[in-house]
Amino acid sequence: MYRRDLRDTSQDGLLADMATADLAVQAAPSPTDDRIAYALNREDQTDIWLREDGADARLTSEGITAMRRGRGDTQWFAWGPDGDRIAFVDAEGTLSAVDAETGAVEALTHHDDPDIGLAWGDHGIAAVTNAVSRAALVLVDPDTGSQRVLADDDYLYNDPRWGDDGLYAVRAPHRSLFDFEAELVRFPIEDAGVATDPEVLFAEDAVRVQTPRPHPEGDGVAFVHDAGGFDEIHYADGAAVDAVGDGSVERTTVHAAEAAEVGAPAWHPDGDRLAFTATNEGRAHVGVTGIDDGADAELLSDGDAFHTGPVWLDGNVYTVRGDPTTPPQVWNVSAGEPAIETGSVGFGERLAEPTEFTFRSGGREIHTVVYPPVDGFGDEVDSVPVLVHPHGGPTAFDDFGWDYRSQYFAALGYAVAMPNYRGSDGYGRAHRMANDDDWGGGDLDDVIDAAGATADAFPAVDADRAGIFGGSGGGLMTVNALGNTDAYDAGAAFYGVYDYETFVDDTDDVGWQLMKRELGDLATDLANYREASPIRDVPDIEDPVLVLHGEEDTRVPISQSEQLCDELEKHGKRHELQSYAEEPHGFSQRENVVDAYTRVADLFAKYLRVDPDDGSSRPHRPDEE
């Protein structure tokens, strides 16, 4: 499939630079002074760093687990109440603590299954763990490592947070996986310690609760729910929490915005106001609001950017902020400048500025982020080939944050269209749930229509030269699109699900629970699993398919790609499977990222007829350097 002399290989260096850029993940101020701990991903490893008096020190060296998603982020590391140690989940999923002065690390748990979220308070470290059962809640003594189970029941627990009156958390029935229905609970603090029988503070059918944030002086809790169709911040004071009896705590609406997802509330230490994020059409900005019903809110940021995880430090709001030309870094929103600059290496001068448009599909508006070629679209009609890049999830969304994959292809002269198809988060509950019981239906129509819609919106785009690529749910969409339309000339599918019937036997608990919710019980609804599987449409695929997968993937095992390629071979379809050792669900090692995406670039250069004609290309395969 490779003809490297058909494209400008000088951009491979840009890809390597972007793939190894430093990425800030989360930040946490010390409870006792002005130090700030932050998680930084550098060269395929995330570690905790400490900013103190303007200098940075690396506290861990063996890697930690920390993920950056958006307004509902789990807390992956947390300061102890005395500000002397930081608890974190290491790269193997073990709950550990590091001394903030010496860097000495101590493992607190020794589980075979990972810990996945934590909060440190006066009564210990509350941790969500898979070691007891899926997403159970335990209390760990930070000095001895002894463990007490708080909740091991019919629910998944998430995002524990300490208040003066108890431990708050959200929980969801196993099939809901927090994206459909979740409720707010409190484990009261009693004379004997933390109770194991939680009180349900807020629960409604088909309503998702997120991000409980106890008041800093013990006066109740702020939290987010989407009963109004979009995420909103609500507040229940201490008297209301104490009086709750039926899961319907009396509360006020602190902040809601039309057609925006408002979340990630963060209390000012005085307890009189909250910082928050407001997400709309792929942008997430930061604001501050009072806590009275209908209080005025002030946005502190604007433009094409994506902020996550606001926190307060010395009266200023800090977040992790990324934009299309700047990798995520710790940002002082109040001052409008980076607090800790990391890893930009002059990207702003080398990358594209994305734009956007919407198109109608099946009666819905599909918001689409578009990266033009770095030099812009130009005036010549049908001069720019288009790549459609459906995101994974499917409950995720594409935004105006850092996206080096799309930037790489923009640098090669493509337009890259990223449709937030039905099922995407960030556009309200109705859109997020619009593909329930319809996987491979309306959502696939949105993806299929995206290439033509992009050409309609931008005359320079040539819909007759269109490719498609994606990972996980996006890999599934890629194969599904190739088997159900002639809109695309080639496709690259990364670590996708292709046969739901066999996927049930191979995936982890999260994948299995998601299948049960969306497709039903395998014993009674087998037809749903088979109908939704892209592998059934292999006989109708007429264009080349590059399949890529990590050999250590437990969410979507490589057997899915092997099975797809067996079927492609059976039907005489042009394809290739490329696997990568030691890669899990998603590629992160520099050499593998560069190899994978240059192979994809070769594929599209060959089949979309993109000839740089400037003498910069080299006629060899990726493994011949």
Automatic annotation (TrEMBL):
Gene3D superfamilies per the UniProt record, alphabetical: alpha/beta hydrolase, TolB, C-terminal domain
Segments forming domain Peptidase S9 prolyl oligopeptidase catalytic: 404-609
Record keywords, A-Z: Aminopeptidase, Hydrolase, Protease, Serine protease
Gene Ontology biological process terms, A to Z: proteolysis
MF (Gene Ontology): aminopeptidase activity; serine-type endopeptidase activity
Transmembrane segment boundaries: none
Keyword Protease annotated: yes
Keyword flag Protease: yes
PANTHER family: DIPEPTIDYL PEPTIDASE FAMILY MEMBER 6, SERINE PEPTIDASE S9 FAMILY MEMBER
Name recorded for this polypeptide: Dipeptidyl aminopeptidase/acylaminoacyl peptidase
